[in-house]
From TrEMBL:
<dbReference type="GO" id="GO:0005739">
    <property type="term" value="C:mitochondrion"/>
</dbReference>
<dbReference type="GO" id="GO:0004585">
    <property type="term" value="F:ornithine carbamoyltransferase activity"/>
</dbReference>
<dbReference type="InterPro" id="IPR006132">
    <property type="entry name" value="Asp/Orn_carbamoyltranf_P-bd"/>
</dbReference>
<protein>
    <recommendedName>
        <fullName>ornithine carbamoyltransferase</fullName>
        <ecNumber>2.1.3.3</ecNumber>
    </recommendedName>
</protein>
<dbReference type="InterPro" id="IPR002292">
    <property type="entry name" value="Orn/put_carbamltrans"/>
</dbReference>
<dbReference type="GO" id="GO:0005829">
    <property type="term" value="C:cytosol"/>
</dbReference>
<dbReference type="InterPro" id="IPR006131">
    <property type="entry name" value="Asp_carbamoyltransf_Asp/Orn-bd"/>
</dbReference>
<keyword id="KW-0808">Transferase</keyword>
<keyword id="KW-0055">Arginine biosynthesis</keyword>
<feature type="domain" description="Aspartate/ornithine carbamoyltransferase carbamoyl-P binding">
    <location>
        <begin position="7"/>
        <end position="149"/>
    </location>
</feature>
<dbReference type="GO" id="GO:0042450">
    <property type="term" value="P:L-arginine biosynthetic process via ornithine"/>
</dbReference>
<dbReference type="GO" id="GO:0019240">
    <property type="term" value="P:citrulline biosynthetic process"/>
</dbReference>
<dbReference type="InterPro" id="IPR036901">
    <property type="entry name" value="Asp/Orn_carbamoylTrfase_sf"/>
</dbReference>
<dbReference type="InterPro" id="IPR006130">
    <property type="entry name" value="Asp/Orn_carbamoylTrfase"/>
</dbReference>
<comment type="pathway">
    <text>Amino-acid biosynthesis; L-arginine biosynthesis; L-arginine from L-ornithine and carbamoyl phosphate: step 1/3.</text>
</comment>
<dbReference type="Pfam" id="PF02729">
    <property type="entry name" value="OTCace_N"/>
</dbReference>
<dbReference type="Pfam" id="PF00185">
    <property type="entry name" value="OTCace"/>
</dbReference>
Amino acid sequence: TASNTIRHLISIADLTTPEFVSLVNRAQHHKKLIKAGVKPETWPLQGELVALLFSKRSTRTRISSEGAAAYFGGQPMFLGKDDIQLGVNESFYDTTKVISSMTSCIFARVNSHSEIQQLCEHSSVPIINSLCDKYHPLQAICDLLSIKENFKELKGLKLAWIGDSNNVINDLAIAAMKFGINVSIATPNGIEIEQHVIDAANATTAETGATLELTHDPKEAAKGANILVTDTFVSMGQEAETQKKLKQFEGFQINSDLVALADKDYKFMHCLPRHKEEVSDDVFYSDHSIVFPEAENRLYAAIATIEAFVVNKGQFL
Ligand code: CP
Ligand code: NVA
């Protein structure tokens, strides 16, 4: 079927390094144009719908993908979990067939990765994974753009992740390593990085030489780090485990004690939304923090993504 030839954005690990680098470069290119007030010359998605099939809340992903659709002349259509028949009255398969028959692509925010796989299998248009339990590729494109803007040379930098093992870091680790950045991940005891991430990291090490270090000691990860990153300790859908997870993450807050171990010119990043337990106010709102430019960069990441996967149908510039 046609869907076999469609390029979907599922995870960063599915992209070659040149493809990923191209997405980051194109995001930077579009940012420059937009900042210079240059309007797009053509609207390749004019008259088309861009569907956002979101079963979870979103601020940044929703705004950036709707903004990116508008940039190309497309009409974004937000389909939240209470808006459509899915789940209550209609199957995932039927919903996928119907939405993809009337739209140019589907940005999908789902619970489990298997839902992204089902969408890719049955959709007649590109699927853009807009967060599942395993991956968050749009965030990783944005984050590498944000790092690129803040450091002259990326090769050999140390990125420290102090937090959970799931979607954001699974893509960010591979993304950073594709740019030659060494990654050190501190998770609490009992929370491990999944084997598929380690396998993708090993393949990337063979290609770029960048390393992945795993530890349960936040200090070990923070030591000499150029970039410190974290995320919520309680991801969407884990609300029932809040007390247990907060206990597990005791000692994992990024605060003045921890950043004292980092490089003196360190940058702090966070995909947002943010809570005080994972990062103290004095770090989050410090001059080292690039969280708000990082959030804005989601727009340019979404633009580069629509350009490559929808407008150019899987051709990377
Ligand atoms: N960073 C991110 O994906 O944020 P939202 O959940 O607000 O989309
Ligand atoms: N890990 C978080 C990321 C939110 C953007 C979650 O899944 O809720």
